[in-house]
Amino acid sequence: YLPRQPSVKQMIIDYIDRASTYTRVPVKFIEGLKECSHTIELNIPLKRDDGSKDMFKAWRAHHSTHALPLKGGIRFTPFTNREEIEAVAILMTMKSAVAQIPYGGAHGGIKVDPKLLSIREIENLTRRYAHELSNAGFFGPAIDVLGTDSGTGPREMAWMMDTYMNHNPNDTDALACITGKPESLHGLKGSTEATGLGLFYSLREFLNNNENTVDLDMNPTMDG
What we know:
Layout: H1 8-20, H2 27-32, E1 38-47, E2 53-62, E3 70-77, H3 82-98, E4 104-111, H4 119-135, E5 144-148, H5 154-167, H6 191-207, H7 210-215
Parallel strand pairs: 3-4, 3-5
Antiparallel strand pairs: 1-2, 2-4
Helix pairs in contact: 1-3, 4-5
């Protein structure tokens, strides 16, 4: 029998509680870190290639607007939900604070398996999502900068940036509304491999620390 694992959001809340015991931060402020300030939930219609229509749930969560713009990725997965989206938004605030980047945390996603859609269907769904976020004030270079996550990449970022630019032709900073876009559209070199490379460096440092590996009964070095 395996005990039921806590949700991602509950694990984050537990970590916040543990970390707060090492600070003098007021309890009410700590409690405020556990919830998002704004979350938008969307029901996006999509006309399929065969003429049928489907509806897809989507979200965008703003955890903390203490600093703008907010920053966070967009995921397209069949298992995502509001709680997961809000949990990652909280993490984005923490990541930015630790790295001393003046952004608030955000995250978003659509509950969809992109492998089951055609390229045309994915594009239409992506563009509609970007359009709805922009209309609701949840998307823009001075408000909320979107980026890649599970199930999305430079292609989706290009579609969303193009949608934002078409609906905001007077925004001279429109190119800054998205990260993770193709290099040909003013994207940065190295963004595609950045997450995996970061994981490699983290694992290397973890495995080269004897205290960590002894606790886990592992070989204390990693070669190659």
